[in-house]
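dumping this here before i forget
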Amino acid sequence: MSPAEPTPAEAVEKLAEYFRPLPTRQGVLARRLLRRPAPGDAELTVKLQRQLAAEVGPDGMVAGGLAFTAFRLIELIELGCDEETPAVPRLITWLLAQQDQPGAYGESCVPTRHEQGACEHYLAGFLSPGPLMIRVAPVTFPNGKVFRVEPAARFALSCLGLRALQLTPARTYAAVRRHLSSLAKLKNAWVTWDGFFPPDLLLTALTALGTAGDLERSATAAATSFVVAHQNSEGEWPGADLFVALEALLAVGSPEALGAIHRSLRCLIERQRADGSFGPAAQQERALIALRGLVA
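structure:
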């Protein structure tokens, strides 16, 4: 990096200023990560917990379906809630009830999916966003990624749900372990970079695998090595969203994953705007992912 180019430290300072006044979950988490809490952050955290929990219905669902419900569980846990918060067990119960329901990814079997190990003969435990006759794509993820193809959207939504469940005591449940094991066994997923599973879908699966920690360690390590091997000389991944890649590698957190994040910093910093953000899509969430990458 030449002296004229912004440094990672300068990028962090821009992000610190960007997050400094924000009364949001991302603002609280960013200031916590930077160890620069704002006056009133403790009270703000409690307020945010209550607001987010209040939007969880009696059945445990958040308006908008699987994506919003799964991410709400992640949001509450990141803000310090646990199963003692009444909304958390309701969210967990609702998500678990969607496993292996009609419309889950892998339902039925066709030759192309069977060859990839991506049908009901190989997969179990996937969460359904709804019956197949109800279209769910396009779906926008919290990180700004839009999945426009129906099977990909259903696969990615289930991975988001799995990621959320693994942050809770439900990670030990047999049904949740079946979903994780299914991801680990996708036999051809980590062979061709832009094949049956496109890059952003592979990375979304890696995020769920990475969140599992020591569970399925060998599969996570193999998938991480595959992703790292496809990073180009600019620090990016062809055909993949940089922020989706960063989120996946942060979830893994291994030395190999952190090394790839380090090599991506130049292209990340080049995208940073004067106000510290990285564009209009999922603005605060992408800024938080970037901050986590820079700090890591």
